Amino acid sequence: MRALVTGAAGFIGSTLVDRLLADGHAVVGLDNFASGRASNLEHLADNPAHVFVEADIVTADLEAILDEHRPEVVFHLAAQIDVRRSVADPQFDASVNVIGTVRLAEAARRAGCARSCTRPRAARSTASRRGTRRPRRCRPIRLRRMPPERWPARST
């Protein structure tokens, strides 16, 4: 299986990349190093099953990246996680966490990617209580339209 992992240079992302490679999968790691560290991926420099792409999910040509690497599954772990920045600049937070996620989901759908995960089970905080477990299979991408009556009310 070929997987794309966004947020690959973060703690959870790099751990997932290591696990996927150990299980014999090919991995394309994607990160912009906003909060991730290059040191989390340095040990993979000579691994032929790993390709790293430095890109931002908000501004990068995600369709071109997906077309080039053709992942079968996308693990989306990229996020703006700095609470202070979220409070100071909520629009930036929404840009990364909402717009970036939608752009990635749309690019994955257009590229014919079969599955997408935003939070593998192994990354949940409760996983440490149960010991090491393999992530559950991801659900297929399903884009549904939310009816207007379920839209959040606007405050002025």
Quick synopsis:
Residues 130-145 have a biased composition (Basic residues). This protein has 156 residues and is an alpha/beta fold.
Number of strands: 5
CATH fold label: Rossmann fold
Pattern of helices and strands: EHEEHEHHEH
What is the topology, as strand order, of the major beta sheet?
A: 3-2-1-4-5
Shape: globular
Could you give a short account of the major beta sheet?
A: 5 strands, parallel
Distance between the termini: 48 Å
CATH superfamily: NAD(P)-binding Rossmann-like Domain
Look at the structure and give the mean pLDDT. Answer: 84
- Give the proportion of residues in helices: 25-40%
Report the β-strand fraction as a percent range. Answer: 5-15%
Number of helices: 5
Domain count: the total is 1
CATH architecture: 3-Layer(aba) Sandwich
Cα-atom radius of gyration: 16 Å
Name of the level-1 CATH class? Alpha Beta
Structure notes:
The chain is of the alpha/beta class and 156 residues long. The protein has a single domain, classed as NAD(P)-binding Rossmann-like Domain (Rossmann fold), CATH 3.40.50.720. The chain has 5 helices and 5 strands; from the N terminus they run βαββαβααβα. The chain has a 5-stranded parallel sheet with strand order 3-2-1-4-5, with helices on both faces. 26% of the residues are buried.
Defining traits:
five-stranded parallel β-sheet; about 35% helix; Rossmann fold; about 160 residues; 5 helices; alpha/beta; single chain; globular
Secondary structure blueprint with pairings:
Layout: E1 2-6, H1 11-22, E2 26-31, E3 50-54, H2 62-69, E4 73-76, H3 83-88, H4 90-110, E5 115-117, H5 127-130
Parallel strand pairs: 1-2, 1-4, 2-3, 4-5
